[in-house]
Amino acid sequence: MNKERLIKNIVDQMKEAQIKLGYVRETVRLYYTLPSLNGILGTEAADQQEMTGLLEESRVPLEEKLGYPKFGIHKGRIEISIPPEGAEYVYREVKASPFLADMIHLFQNHHCCSMEEIRNVFETYSRDYVCEKMPEGMDFDYVLYFLDELIDPYYYCVKAEMGHTIYHRFTKEDYQMLLNS
Q: What does the pLDDT look like over 44-83, one tens digit per residue?
């Protein structure tokens, strides 16, 4: 089980929220689908109860960095609750990704940013990235990601609608599931 990848995903999500919204010392609740957690952890849990059991058994690495998380099932998803000391750890000890900070800054300051502006942010960090039009009928218009996952491992799906441009970032596995759904 790839516990470090789960820790990275949790920390990345928390840091993204802190960049967007600011820091508050409070419990953070993250919600995952079973297939998403199986992809992150490299497991094959058959149901949500089995997954929460696996998470309970492997909580020690999480506790070292993020406090004592709680695991549960909420509205068909698996809830991971990170206590306030975990949020504080991410705020104080985890440096924001310059790329992610620049992406968030672009979207916060240009509600209808263009693909050229988004590509410019990617090109600031590497010319080796992919920008593809999404297949017809998908919820997003484009996907962008770096070939070098060390720069940023996520797939950014972009949609322009009603005068606003939004992005959602996915793990590689979640992006593949999105394409196959």
A: 999 999 999 999 987 766 777 888 899 999 999 999 999 9
Is 128 strand, coil or helix?
coil
For the chain, the residue count is 181
* DSSP-derived pairing of the beta strands 77-82 and 164-170: unpaired
Quote the tokens at residue 54: 């696996």
C-beta of residue 171 within 8 angstroms of C-beta of residue 40: yes
| Residues 109 and 102 sit within 8 Å (Cβ to Cβ) | no
Q: Which long-range contacts (CB under 8 A, 24 or more apart) does 33-37 make?
A: 33/76, 33/77, 33/78, 34/78, 35/173, 35/177, 36/171, 36/173, 36/174, 36/177, 37/6, 37/78
Could you give the CA distance from residue 157 to residue 134 in angstroms, rounded to a whole number? 8
Residue with tokens 């967007």: 20
Element (H, E) at 155: strand 155-161
